[in-house]
């Protein structure tokens, strides 16, 4: 009888061990098979814009290096929310992620005016040095505004001034010229030139130029080409200066759903793509300029003396921005250090 009881006791112990080990195996398996997270991202530009080369390289690298655990699903041409509403939408969670422009948010985050204005970057090396040193400041700044910044990039390495009939080469031509500007501080630069700035979403610009609502604009090469602005303003003056920047941001609650390991991977990729974006844009801009010329656009490139004369008038805006906050002052110090 005792022998039977011992055998039964051993049998029960064996069953218990089997269940415990099976449970552990099941738990480990569920942890390994982490559920994929697809993040909707609002994008103001079109799918054929040079900016999309940056987005594709970034998003494809993230999907590959996280083994498909994190994916960004694009919604182009502001189909989720307009550019000027994207910051608020990402912050309140109605949109999971978005691409901003410094010009569109500098009214809310005044420090971003330093990365909105014309002429911030003059070379790729300078941009890379500024990127490395400014990024920690931006991470802190955007955290204060309840969004997570992942990456940023130049708006353009070349700025165009568009007009229906004339090349804008003389500073006197800006007087009383109605100009679409991307944000608060480009507007201040336009005022210093004697122009009348008007802020509007990029999607409205073609009709505004066609109808004469605005006579001109400071514009990136990429948006000029992708929106076919050469059709309504064929006279284009190339300033030889950078303009604006774009920022990739995500809602903090969405970011917290990503594992720490994948967050580090995303930050690493973002740093690499962010720093390489200048050369990517420059190459696509050269292609776009050639394409527009073949379609009838005409170009005038400012001479070095003309460019210096322009900068003397518009660059004092940066000092004004730096007085907005301690962070603005710190950002300008970094930019000036790499001038």
TrEMBL record:
Belongs to the bacterial solute-binding protein 7 family. PANTHER family: C4-DICARBOXYLATE-BINDING PROTEIN DCTB (PTHR33376:SF7), PTHR33376. It holds the Pfam family DctP. Coiled coil: none annotated. The keyword Amino-acid biosynthesis does not apply. Residues 1-28 form the signal peptide. InterPro entries: DctP_fam (IPR018389), TRAP_DctP_sf (IPR038404). Gene3D superfamilies: Bacterial extracellular solute-binding protein, family 7. The keyword Lipid biosynthesis does not apply. This is TRAP-type C4-dicarboxylate transport system, periplasmic component. Keywords: Signal, Transport. GO terms for biological process: transmembrane transport.
């Amino acid at each position: 009888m005792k022998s039977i009881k011992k055998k039964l006791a051993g049998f029960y112990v064996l069953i218990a061990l089997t269940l415990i080990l099976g449970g552990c195996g099941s738990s480990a398996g569920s942890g390994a098979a982490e559920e994929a997270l697809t993040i909707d991202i609002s994008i103001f530009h079109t799918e054929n814009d040079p900016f999309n080369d940056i987005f594709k390289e970034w998003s494809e690298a993230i999907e590959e290096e996280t083994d498909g655990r994190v994916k960004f699903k694009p919604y182009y041409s502001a189909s989720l929310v307009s550019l000027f509403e994207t910051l608020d939408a990402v912050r309140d969670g109605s949109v999971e992620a978005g691409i901003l422009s410094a010009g569109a948010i500098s009214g809310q985050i005044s420090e971003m005016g330093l990365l909105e204005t014309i002429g911030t970057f003059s070379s790729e090396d300078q941009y890379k040095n500024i990127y490395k040193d400014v990024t920690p400041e931006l991470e802190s700044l955007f955290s204060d505004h309840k969004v997570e910044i992942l990456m940023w990039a130049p708006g353009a390495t070349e700025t165009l001034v568009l007009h229906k009939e004339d090349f804008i080469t003389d500073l006197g031509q800006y007087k009383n010229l109605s100009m679409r500007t991307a944000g608060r501080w480009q507007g201040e630069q336009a005022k210093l030139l004697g122009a009348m700035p008007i802020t509007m979403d990029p999607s409205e610009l073609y009709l505004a130029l066609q109808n004469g609502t605005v006579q001109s604009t400071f514009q990136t090469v990429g948006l000029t080409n992708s929106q076919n602005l050469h059709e309504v303003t064929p006279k284009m003056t190339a300033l030889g200066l950078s303009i604006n920047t774009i920022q990739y941001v995500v809602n903090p609650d969405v970011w917290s759903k990503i594992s720490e390991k994948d967050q580090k991977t995303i930050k690493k990729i973002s740093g690499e793509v962010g720093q390489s974006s200048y050369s990517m844009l420059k190459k696509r801009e050269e292609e776009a300029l050639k394409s527009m010329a073949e379609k009838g656009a005409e170009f005038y490139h400012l001479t070095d003396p003309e460019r210096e004369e322009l900068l003397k008038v518009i660059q004092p805006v940066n000092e004004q921005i730096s007085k907005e906050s301690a962070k603005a002052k710190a950002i300008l110090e970094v930019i000036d250090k790499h001038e």
